[in-house]
Write a structure and sequence with these properties.
Length: about 70
């Protein structure tokens, strides 16, 4: 899918976004697709842009287009 969405948070060291994992969707009883909500928790992730490790609260992650996660090619 071209428009895959990832849970991501802004890197503390650069302007890049740090990705966690893909956003999953839930079908309710009426067949309506709703976005999952993340539980409370903490993750540690390394930024693909600058390499800095950071700790992020799951509650602060936002669905982000995958194109913001991948470092731009020169
Ligand atoms: Zn960074």
């Amino acid at each position: 899918m071209a428009d895959s969405m990832y849970w991501a948070a802004p890197c503390k060291e650069c302007s890049g976004m740090v990705g966690y994992r893909d956003v999953r969707y839930i079908l309710d009883a009426r067949g309506v697709r709703t976005q999952e909500t993340l539980p409370e928790g903490i993750i540690e992730r390394r930024c693909d842009h600058c390499g800095a490790a950071g700790v992020f609260a799951l509650q602060r992650l936002r669905p982000t287009s995958v194109k913001f996660l991948v470092p731009k090619l020169p």
